[in-house]
C-alpha cells in the first residue's frame, strides 16, 4: 500500500500530518536533507527536523550524496518513516539515481512505509521533474541527463503555490504546463495525501 504525505512546508502542516498519522511516539525517521546541501537558504531543514522531534519521533539523518549504498540501504530499511526535505530537485534526483537510492525508496514505499516529501521531496514523486526548472537550477546537477523521477503519482506537485518568493514562478509554471501536465499546486499550508491510489488534498484554514 502506497502511503505518501506531500507538502511544501512541513512545519506549517503538522496538524494535517497528525490527522493522517497519529501513531508517532518513538517511531524512527530516515531524514534525507540531500536536496538542501547545494542551496544557500536551508532554514526549512532544521524547522522540519524540529517539527518531527516535537511529535516524539526519533530522527536519523541520511545524506544520500555522501553515504555508501550499504549505509543508505540499512538506514532506509530499519527506520519506520522516510522524510525527504526541500532544496534543489535536480541535485536530489541526480544523487538518488547515482547511488541507487531511488530504487530503494520505491521498494520501501511499495511495502507500505510512510514517505513524507517536502517541496523537492514532493516533486520527485512525479513522473518527471522537467516542469520545475524555472524554480530550481538544473546547473546544480551536471550529471543528470534524464529527468524521469520516482513516478509514484500520476500528477506533478507544484509546491509553494502563491507563496513568496515563488508566487510569480508558480503561476508561470501553471500557465506553461497546465495544458500538457496534471499540475497539482499546493501552498505552504496545504498537503497532498496519497493512500494507495486515493489522492486527497488538505489545507489549514
TrEMBL record:
Tell me what this protein is called: Type 1 glutamine amidotransferase-like domain-containing protein
Q: Can you tell which superkingdom this protein's organism belongs to?
A: Bacteria
Fetch the SUPFAM superfamilies from UniProt.
Class I glutamine amidotransferase-like
The entry's family comment says: Belongs to the peptidase S51 family.
- To which species is this protein native? Listeria farberi
InterPro entries named in the record: Class_I_gatase-like, Peptidase_S51
Question: Residues of the signal sequence?
Answer: none
Report keywords, A-Z. Answer: Hydrolase, Protease, Serine protease
Amino acid at each position: 500500500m502506497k502511503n505518501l504525505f506531500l507538502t511544501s512546508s512541513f512545519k506549517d502542516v503538522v496538524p494535517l500530518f497528525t490527522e493522517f498519522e497519529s501513531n508517532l511516539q518513538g517511531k524512527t525517521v530516515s531524514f534525507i536533507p540531500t536536496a538542501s546541501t547545494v542551496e544557500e537558504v536551508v532554514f526549512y531543514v532544521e524547522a522540519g527536523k524540529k517539527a518531527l522531534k516535537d511529535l516524539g519521533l526519533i530522527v536519523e539523518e541520511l545524506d544520500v550524496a555522501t553515504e555508501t549504498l550499504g549505509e543508505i540501504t540499512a538506514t532506509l530499511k530499519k527506520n519506520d518513516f522516510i522524510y525527504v526535505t526541500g532544496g534543489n530537485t535536480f541535485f536530489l534526483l541526480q544523487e538518488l539515481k547515482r547511488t541507487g537510492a531511488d530504487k530503494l525508496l520505491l521498494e520501501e514505499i511499495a511495502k507500505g512505509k510512510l514517505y513524507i516529501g517536502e517541496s523537492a521531496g514532493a516533486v520527485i514523486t512525479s513522473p518527471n521533474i522537467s516542469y520545475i526548472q524555472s524554480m530550481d537550477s538544473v546547473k546544480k546537477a551536471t550529471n543528470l541527463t534524464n529527468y524521469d523521477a520516482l513516478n509514484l503519482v500520476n500528477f506533478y506537485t507544484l509546491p509553494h503555490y502563491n507563496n513568496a518568493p515563488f508566487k510569480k514562478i508558480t503561476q508561470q509554471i501553471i500557465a506553461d504546463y497546465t495544458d500538457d501536465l496534471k499540475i497539482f499546486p499546493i501552498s505552504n499550508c496545504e498537503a497532498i495525501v496519497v493512500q494507495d491510489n486515493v489522492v486527497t488534498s488538505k489545507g489549514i484554514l
